[in-house]
Amino acid sequence: MEFRDLKAQYKNYQKAIDAAIQNVLENGNFINGKEVKLLEERLAHYVGVKNCISCANGTDAMTLLMMAWGIKKGDAVFVPDFTFFSTGEIVSFNGATPIFVDVDKDTFNIDTEKLDQVIQKTIEENKYTPKVIIPVDLFGLPANHYEIDRIAKKYNLLVLEDAAQGFGGSINGKMACSFGTAATTSFFPAKPLGCYGDGGAIFTNDDQLAKLLNSYKEHGKGEHKYDNARIGVNSRLDTIQAAILNVKLTGFIEHELEDVNKVYEWYTERLNGIVKTPFIPNGYQSSFAQYTIQLHSNEERDLLKTKLKEQGIPTMIYYLKPMHKQEAFKSIDFHDEDFKVTDVLCNTVLSLPIHPYLNKDMVHTICNSIVDVLLR
Ligand SMILES: *Cc1c(COP(=O)(O)O)cnc(C)c1O
C-alpha cells in the first residue's frame, strides 16, 4: 500500500501526461514556454485572484514575497509552531526573526487568540518590529483567515497565506490561495496538486506586487531580459512541469478534490469515537493533504504506527518536533509553556494514507487494523 499513490494517478492520466511532455520536447521551449503562462492563468482563475506567479518551489514562493516586501533583520514574522520547517526557515533566511505561535487543538492551525497576544507582547517588548503573519493551511484545511485578517488590520501587518498543503481548500466557497495580502503554494509531488519535481506559485490581487515578484524571480529583470533593475534570484517553473500540471489541474478540478473528500468521509465514519478524527469547521472544505488522527498518548501512537507497519500500512508523523525546538532556531528565546498544544500534537498525531485513488475497501482494511490494535 502507498501512503500517497502517485503511480495510480499517473496511470489514470498516462496518455495525456505523456503527450503533454512529448509536446514540450518537440517544441523545445523548456524555459518560459506557453504552458507556463496557460497554467498561471488557469490557476489564478481557479482560486479567484488576479495574478499567479509560478516559481521553482513553495519555499522560493515565500522567500520571493519576503524579498518583495523588504523583510529584513529586526523584523518579526509570526508563524505557527506546528508546520513544515520551510515556513520558519524563509523568515530567518531573509534575516528576520520568526516568532512562533501555538496552534488550535482541533484545527491544528494557528491559534488566533494567542496570535493577538503574541503580537501585543512583541510590540511591548520593542525588540523586533512586527511585519508579517504567515498562517498555514495545515493538512489541507484553511486557517481561520477572517479572524487573521482582522488581527492583521488591527496591527497593520501583511499576511502571507502558506497554502503549500492547502490548494483546493475553501471557506464558504472562497478558495485557499486567495486569502491574505498574498498566498503561496507548492507543487511538490505529494502536495494536493503536485508535479513531477519541484514547483511553486504565488497568488495576489496586487498588480504592483505581481510585477515586482516577476522581476525578482528572474534575476531582478527590468523592462527587457538583459536589463536588471534589482538583485533577484533564478526561480522559474519548468515548462515540462507546467505541462504536467495543466493535465493534473483538470483532474483535480474534475474529480480528485471530491474523491479525496470521500476518502475523508469513509475514514471518519469508521474511526469516529475510536480516535480523534480531523475537525472541519462549518463552511470549511479541506483538500486533505493529510488525514491526521490524534491518539490518547505517545505510547499508543507509536504502538499503532508499529503495528500498522507490520501489516504493510504506511503512516507518517507530521510533525515530530515543534518549530521552537528545532536546532536551527536555538538562538531565539522561547518558553516551552507557550506551546502546550503543539507539544501534545507532536507526541500524539499520526497521518494515515490518503489520496484520491484510495478505494473504500482499502480504507476499511486500514480502519479494521486500527480498531484491532486499539480495542484489543
Ligand atoms: C511543502 C511545504 C512548503 C514548501 O514547499 P516546497 O515546494 O517543498 O519548497 C512550505 N510550507 C508548508 C506548510 C509545506 O508543507
TrEMBL record:
Keywords on record: Pyridoxal phosphate
Domain of life, per lineage: Bacteria
The entry lists its GO molecular-function terms as: pyridoxal phosphate binding; transaminase activity
A single BP term in Gene Ontology: polysaccharide biosynthetic process
The catalytic residues are 191
**Has keyword Iron?**
no
N6-(pyridoxal phosphate)lysine PTM sites in chain numbering: 191
Similarity comment: family membership: Belongs to the DegT/DnrJ/EryC1 family.
Know the name of this protein? dTDP-4-amino-4,6-dideoxygalactose transaminase
State the species of origin: Natranaerovirga hydrolytica
